[in-house]
Amino acid sequence: MKKLLLLSLVLLLSSCEKSNLEYRHDFEKSYALWLQFKASCNDSYVYQVNNYSWVGVSWETTITIENGIPVRRSFKMNLPVNYPYEVPAEVREWVEEASDLNTHEDSSAAYPFTVDEIYEKARTEWLIKRDNARICFEALNNGLISSCGYVKDGCYDGCFTGIRIGFIWKIQTLL
């Protein structure tokens, strides 16, 4: 509780200074909720990153964090019904456990960041004001980050830099 009060004080004091962050208020509100969520589940949770392409291919990466450490990453690619290319089953779907985490290096799977690391990337990279890009931030996962990133002006396909999170759940919720 003391840490949460200290964070709130720091956020309040820093809100008086000029910011280079888009969606600063929304980000700070979401981050405070994240800290509460993280404490309530002992930093053990699962989240899913979703992506898609203009040709109808979509994929999801589900990442499990236990006590603040990534311990599992699963990946599933969904192809449209009449997709013209053959994609081997072992490329379309796989699971990595702690001992072999990140062994599918050439995959479209999301890197197994902790949500703390995702909020840090949001704060230091994805939400930085840019003259040449549209920036987005959404917190549709009960106030937790759900979409954060930017698209450079003039780009119309596959240009999103950031993350889309479909859900963040406490591990206890799954049992």
Overview of this structure, please?
The chain has 175 residues and is an alpha+beta fold. It has one domain (2-174). The protein is 29% helix and 31% strand. The chain has a seven-stranded antiparallel beta sheet with strand order 4-3-2-1-7-6-5. The chain starts with a helix and ends with a helix.
Number of domains: 1
Q: Distance N terminus to C terminus?
A: 27 Å
Strand content: 25-35%
**Class computed from helices, strands and strand pairing:** alpha+beta
**Low-confidence parts:** 4-10, 12-17
- Helicity range: 25-40%
Average predicted local confidence, pLDDT: 89
Strand tally, please? Answer: 7
For this entry, what is the oligomeric state of its chains? single chain
- Placed side by side, the strands forming the largest sheet appear as 4-3-2-1-7-6-5
Provide a short characterization of the protein structure.
The chain is of the alpha+beta class and 175 residues long. The protein has helices spanning 2-14, 24-40, 89-92, 115-126, 171-174, and strands spanning 45-52, 58-66, 69-78, 93-97, 133-138, 147-152, 161-170. The protein is built from 5 helices and 7 strands, in the order ααβββαβαβββα.
Helix-strand blueprint:
Blueprint: H1 2-14, H2 24-40, E1 45-52, E2 58-66, E3 69-78, H3 89-92, E4 93-97, H4 115-126, E5 133-138, E6 147-152, E7 161-170, H5 171-174
Antiparallel strand pairs: 1-2, 1-7, 2-3, 3-4, 5-6, 6-7
Helix pairs in contact: 1-2
